[in-house]
Design brief:
21 strands, alpha+beta, Beta-lactamase, 12 helices, 8-stranded antiparallel beta barrel, about 475 residues, elongated, 2 domains, Lipocalin
Length: about 475
Amino acid sequence: MKNLMILFWVTFVIPFHLLAQDNHYAEAIRIMDIWLEAQRNYDNLPGISVALIKDQKMIWGNGYGFSDLENKTPVTASTKFSICSISKLFTSIAIMQLFESGKLRLDDQIEDLLPWYDLKQQFAGSGPITIRSLLTHSSGLPRESAHPYWTGPAFDFPSPEEVRTGLQDQETLYPASTYFQYSNLAMTLLGEVVAHVSGMPYGDYIRSRILQPLEMHDTETYLPVAEWGGQLAIGYSAEDRSRNRVKLNLFDAEGIAAAAGFSSTVEDLGKFAAWQFRLLSGGDVEILKASTLRYMQQVHWMDPDWKTSWGLGFAIWEQEGKSMVGHGGSCPGYRSTIVIDPTRKLAAIAMINAQAVNPSKYTKGMLALVIKAEGKETSHDTMHLEQYAGFYNSQPWWPEEVIVPWQGKLASIALPNENPATEMSLLKQLEGHHFRRVRDDDTLGEEIRFELDQNGRIIKYWQHNNFTIRVADFQK
């Protein structure tokens, strides 16, 4: 486990600031660090990179494990990953810039903007396929271009020309504006619209109009081959039955770049989140008008089952009565997610270099801990609780248990778990080394008594006439 003196260190570029001394979050960040390091091991991941953003500040960023298992290159908050479908957010913003400048309308039909578009509409009664329907994945288009680019080991993505010529062999799946059908092809076509309407190559447009103004210097519209295994993490497969993961070939999304081709870091996506908070709060113009970004983050499509809603490029869902926005990404060897809470001005980002584990559970747990900690400072008179902090052997019932101070009490957390904010049990100190468990209704439950050795060090605790041994503290 990392030395606690360095848990909160992160290198970042202004305007982000380190909040190592912010007592609102110190305990939450400590638990996140312990939890994510454990989860990386239990989920058998090569590496994880994470960041938390509060308004204009990066509260915390860290990395776990390795970007290259063979050479043991450590993951950090500045490690690059494929962000795959998060790329769609940048394509969507580019479209809305062109909308603001009057160069296109959301109800423009795709064939009017791309004269070469010739995908067959198989439903005579279908409405038009518009820019809006492409942004909301309700166009009825197939999910993919007519090429097997998700098939390994080559992951042979088509060129832009091959995407275009492949359209003549495809047809719509549904009438337009009938169902949600996630579509990489739809976003690929929107990338073509950006290039055609702006008169600039897609990548040049994104760099000059979005990435450079936001100082996202470690974000590219491609995967940088020269950095693979260095700053760019190597991607690994899903586990087999022996829990082995295989190193995957690096891919180039080529003609699908607008939908799935970008690489970035959690630090850079933190800047992207902070820009959104800044714009929505200030109401000014930066990249977009504030009103346009707000419009993008409203629900523009609701599926007939009322379970899937989408904005203009952004995924949107309800959580505790609030609208959450963001996007996930999954490409060969990489998974990523950005979750944004516009009301609280909170964002969490997670990237992993392996398949079959959804990093959304990490961002969910991170945000839950921050929300649980907000407005509640760590009291200095609880520092004596540190003597109880450490790892305890909960075998054979659970892999391990960690105990840490939390808001004037002790928190007992089993590892691994899906969400430490909801999985913790609180222990209230009565006197000396005697505690009682705090029940969900805040009444007190059974007694927990800690035992010391002859040197005054905690060695175990007793509960229900049984004991659990303390096995380690938080320093290697």
